[in-house]
């Protein structure tokens, strides 16, 4: 965490007054938020609303990772970027937008894909990680880095009219690999470009991710350490699914892990983390 | 002989696209000598509901990686996985995990 | 509704491509969105995320009502406004922010409180109304105007760590008065200033309101016409509550309505729609 | 004599603040000659759970305007309101409606 402040400034008290009166947060929780740093992996449909509400709430430092640039087809769901920012790296565009909302937060943009070479050192610098990525190799990479660094991972995903959320590696609960020891066959994976997504669906999931990050960072604790939230936008229905506990034979968080450093996740998954056309053609 | 078992079988996260886009199926499994378990249910689904490309849903006698099986809103790992004995009125949900963002 | 377009422009097809591929929406649904107009009553914690996702999705016209100006204590939850817009009317600030995101939508800011004199004529000009207000008199006023004008009302509310959402006056379902024939005693009503609110809670509710507006405007239909969504942020739990049907003896939507024109809602509720200190002191 | 009835009584939307901030209460209503209904439950709550300022929760023999009563996740109007006969294991939720935004 960042250095502790002894107290809130008068400006902070004014800005956060509506949440300071909550007994569940209070000055104590706000000071914890101000000390905490959150790494946002992906500044797209999930990362935009997530970063927006974390910045507004007064998290101390936000790391913003994205390798992509803003495109017109992003704007229906990636609400931090604007028409004038097309062509800019998303991490820079997001940081610029967030600075207008709350200039007292530190923003650290990383323009590039999270890679196995750098992910562990990066994750070690943050207290909580939010997986807002859009592909399978990155999800395994972020998971393994969080397990190796001992950080909680608030993971969201959305496609078409559905969303899912789990908090991994939190308070003795399972990690992503405990649930998914083997990656899905690449031909079964659909991305937002192919499958489509109604923009407000990642909006809803990203906001709920922000809520869980705030609950973890402020000491309230998350309810999703061994539960998955499933959301069906068509039906307007949310379900809380009880998940398995941490698995003793998990390759990365188990008792005898075989994964002790980060690997080649694109090879493991048979797909690319950065291409628009995701399946690796291996022949 | 086990009595017939009525289930609600649901598909989500895109898995429903292998079942004509229908998310909820009311299913009645016929009487058979041994009790119905998830292993038998998967065989029955493959024969009776799954229209095409079974490899996108199954791998061997189980579901393919990336599909979670939930029995009455709990992970099937908590319930015995393939060996779970189905009860009348159970809800079984097969959900494909999402990766988009 | 606005005049129908025969087809989408090439720019629209590019911008909305990720939602056009959804069979539930498609070109037909997008053209319906482009024709539809939505009145947003309140540009605060609920109205900001709602307007953001409606603008991004390509609604034709957004009316933005708010009588207030941007203050520092709003910024922890009212994410469309920024530090530099403090002191500006919220309706203008919201319109300016939304224009940067999607300049092809028409924005109509109304700087002033919704009043019984003007509300009915205003509501008649829109297809769907979103109640993002923060006080009881406005909630009755918006409801009665929607019933008299025959418009569906997507109503959200949030306080502390909880949120609620209902769609009123929709497809033969109940109106707000069917559920709440009598206003609550003023001393039992808590506002966000007194009770506090975690900013992302109205963020989540406002996004779900946007989803229901989009489902109604695009012809998918809402699931909340006779259901209330209740959200407990602390527990991370959503509940869908089955509500009563429309009541034949409802004062405004019943068989023999006593309310046939808009009234004095501040007197009816014993509280003010615009004061910071809400209870009317009648003596 | 009606048998004792066990209920989960919940408060939300701020109504829990009248009950020491506790949202969920496991309640066992004692045996009594007539069956328990919501009318009697409200009297029992007033005597046994409600610590102060009953006028912020009740009005006459019913709840005050602005509080919704939900029986097993359904509006009490669908269930007979004050006359609903409580069943063992029922969930009764009193929720104060929110107006903030
Ligand atoms: Zn693990
Ligand atoms: Zn009515």
TrEMBL record, chains B, D:
The modification 1-thioglycine is found at residue 101. GO terms for biological process: protein urmylation; tRNA thio-modification; tRNA wobble uridine modification. One of its GO terms (cellular component) is cytosol. It is found in: Cytoplasm. C-terminal thiocarboxylation occurs in 2 steps, it is first acyl-adenylated (-COAMP) via the hesA/moeB/thiF part of MOCS3, then thiocarboxylated (-COSH) via the rhodanese domain of MOCS3. Its main location: cytoplasm. The keyword RNA-binding does not apply. It comes from the Eukaryota. Pathway: tRNA modification; 5-methoxycarbonylmethyl-2-thiouridine-tRNA biosynthesis. It holds the Pfam family Urm1. Keywords: Cytoplasm, Isopeptide bond, tRNA processing, Ubl conjugation pathway. There is a cross-link at residue 101 (Glycyl lysine isopeptide (Gly-Lys) (interchain with K-? in acceptor proteins)). SUPFAM superfamilies: MoaD/ThiS (SSF54285). InterPro entries: Beta-grasp_dom_sf, Mopterin_synth/thiamin_S_b, Urm1. Acts as a sulfur carrier required for 2-thiolation of mcm(5)S(2)U at tRNA wobble positions of cytosolic tRNA(Lys), tRNA(Glu) and tRNA(Gln). Serves as sulfur donor in tRNA 2-thiolation reaction by being thiocarboxylated (-COSH) at its C-terminus by MOCS3. The sulfur is then transferred to tRNA to form 2-thiolation of mcm(5)S(2)U. Also acts as a ubiquitin-like protein (UBL) that is covalently conjugated via an isopeptide bond to lysine residues of target proteins. HAMAP family: Urm1. Belongs to the URM1 family. This is Ubiquitin-related modifier 1. The gene is URM1.
